[in-house]
Amino acid sequence: MVKILENFSLKEKTTFAVESKARFFAEVRNESDMLSVLDSQAFQQSARYILGGGSNTLFADDFDGIVINPVNRGIKIIESNKKFILLEVEAGISWHNFVEIAIKNKFYGLENLALIPGNVGGAVAQNIGAYGSELKNFVFEVRGVDVASMEFKNLSAEECSFGYRNSIFKNELKNKFIITSAKFKLYRKPNVNLSYPELKKEVKKFPFIQPDPKYVFETVCRLRKSKLPDITQFPNAGSFFKNPVVTNDILERVKSKYPDVPFFPVENDLFKIPAGWLIEKAGWKGKRIGNVGTYEKHSLVIVNFGVKSGREIVDFARSIRNDVFEKFGIWLENEVEIVFNSDEKF
Fold first, then answer.
1. Active-site pick, 27, 111, 141, 165
2. Which of 55, 167, 215, 344 has minimal Cβ neighbours within 10 Å of its Cβ?
């Protein structure tokens, strides 16, 4: 029987390392544990939050409910042939560890998504992406429990409604469906993805090296380490805001004042502008207020320098967002999930 703890400190459970307590907390190791928690009084009568690796979560306050933390870490082969392999990966395994295992065994496709923090369950819900790739391109099926019926169900990739850093698990099924595992379709034949300009530029620095998936994996790791702070020294949750998608009219308005604005075509006359560039141009790169600030090497990363409450980080992030809107007319959406105790919105 799974043990449900009370007044549990969440500081060590998130990469922001903010002091916050959950009224109830439960680690779930298997499907039996999950059903036991769902059937408990603590779950039935409380607000609930599903916490993965904690790398994309900020608790603004103490959480007056139950936090469920899946820690199941199995991987098994479902199907294998000369072209592809289908793996079922449990929600609690570290995403980067899974990518490492895939590369080591010559299962290809995930190398551009290396070194992204967090666990598989959260990666699926977030539809993580980096360096020209997105997780949704490799998801075959997602398994989890329907909270209302307490039945386990499988959802196809199409049913997951994946979008930019988004999925059905962050919207219609939020707190209604808990991911326990996902099936990934990976490939036997190497097919490197160098569509992202920065990655392509880095790889071409060494023209005598023929880029293969392992080399792309190593290059992505090197790039991420050069930009992002060590969470043990600078607690953070990576990119705090999503890159905004804007119309051509808005882009042209920004270009009239800043001709050097970087942008990438998306679709249907829409363009993506790096949020980090907007924040830097607004004067927030390396800026610090009290015990919270942006990282000196990457303005999209907000760092906890010793805050007493997640509220300080929320207030700082709101100030950035409001200033960017005032200067550019572009509203930044948070990529980090902010957990409030009420219906408050960021």
1. 165
2. 344
* 303 contacts 234 by C-beta, under 8 angstroms: yes
Task: Give per-residue pLDDT as tens, 286-344.
Answer: 999 999 999 999 999 999 999 999 999 999 999 999 999 999 999 999 999 999 988 89
Q: What is the pLDDT of residues 16-42, one digit of tens each?
A: 999 999 999 999 999 999 999 999 999
242: number of Cβ within 10 Å = 17
The token pair that represents 345 in the structure block: 């919105």
* Residue percentage of the chain with pLDDT more than 90: 94
Cα-to-chain-centroid distance, residue 302: 15
Measured over the CA atoms of residue 112, residue 115, residue 121 and residue 122, the dihedral's sign is negative
- Catalytic annotation present for 267: no
Tell me if residue 40 is catalytic.
no
Based on the residue annotation, tell me whether 239 is a catalytic residue of this protein.
Answer: yes
**Which domains are present in the chain?**
4-70 (3.30.43.10), 75-187 (3.30.465.10), 236-339 (3.90.78.10)
Q: What is the pTM of this model?
A: 0.91
pLDDT at 343: 85
DSSP 187-219: ESS------SHHHHHHHTTSTTS---HHHHHHH
Which among 239, 312, 321, 337 is annotated as catalytic? 239
- State how far the Cα of 305 lies from the Cα of 313, in Å rounded to an integer: 10
What's the first-to-final CA gap in the chain, in angstroms? 37
**Quick one: which of 6, 55, 14, 7 has its CA closest to 307?**
14
